[in-house]
Write a structure and sequence with these properties.
- Helix content is 36%, strand content 22%.
- It is an alpha/beta fold.
- Strands 2-1-3-4-5-11 form a six-stranded parallel β-sheet, with helices on both faces. A five-stranded mixed β-sheet has the order 7-8-6-9-10, with helices on one face.
- Helix 1 crosses helix 6, helix 2 runs parallel beside helix 3 and helix 4 runs parallel beside helix 5.
- The radius of gyration is 19 Å and the shape is globular.
- The protein starts with a strand and ends in a 5-residue tail after the last helix.
Length: 256
Amino acid sequence: MQSIVAGDGGMGRAVEAALAGRGTPARAVLGMPAAKSGHGPEAFAGAEVLFEFSQSDAVLPNVRAALAGGVRRFVIGTTAWADDRAEVERLLAETGACAVSSPSFSLGVMLFARIVEQATRMFGPFPDYDPYLVEWHRRTKADRPSGTALELSRRIIAAHPRKQRTAQLLAHGAPAPEELDVAVIRAGAAPGMHLVGFDAPGESLELRLTARDRSAYAAGALASADWLLAAPRVPGIHTFDEVIDSMIAATAPQGA
């Protein structure tokens, strides 16, 4: 795999280490561009895959420059770039390129999300069991809630018969009955913790996922790149769920 990593922060370096660990080191790890206009197409020349783990306002210019440099497969783990998503999708479709985009490339996080969805459907019919979400990341993480927390919230609201939206962060007063309360903690150096609970007068059930480091996220990013390279994919943006479904199918007994 000929690859380039955009972003020299914690996740970019974790992807770099994972690539080196399996004998396919990245051609380059790109940090902050020297020019205000961003990286030029030449910075991406020769790469089959771009791992995009930079910052939200760099996703669109990096994708545009990489496409001009000949890249046609992208793994996008940067968060908070929703305003540019439509334009990125247009560029990918226009050039026959494809991407896997996810707020988290941890297999555990995405399977956890499926468990949360199912638990919400089970508890939803019982009004006494009120769902809530808590997420804790390192103090320096800029976005709040995290992309993973937003995805978990989306799934809970979609599966719950009464929750319609998330409560406003830092709002005064109790959340409305139709609001999902999301608590956000930014402290210390924690790489990530997400907890979903269902609380009733007589008991409380909690589902928790705690990351120890970024290796699980990097492994999922590489699995997504492998999936993009394994067969022609429909141009545009794909979800990490599609990659996971493919991985599950590959491990299923023949004839099952």
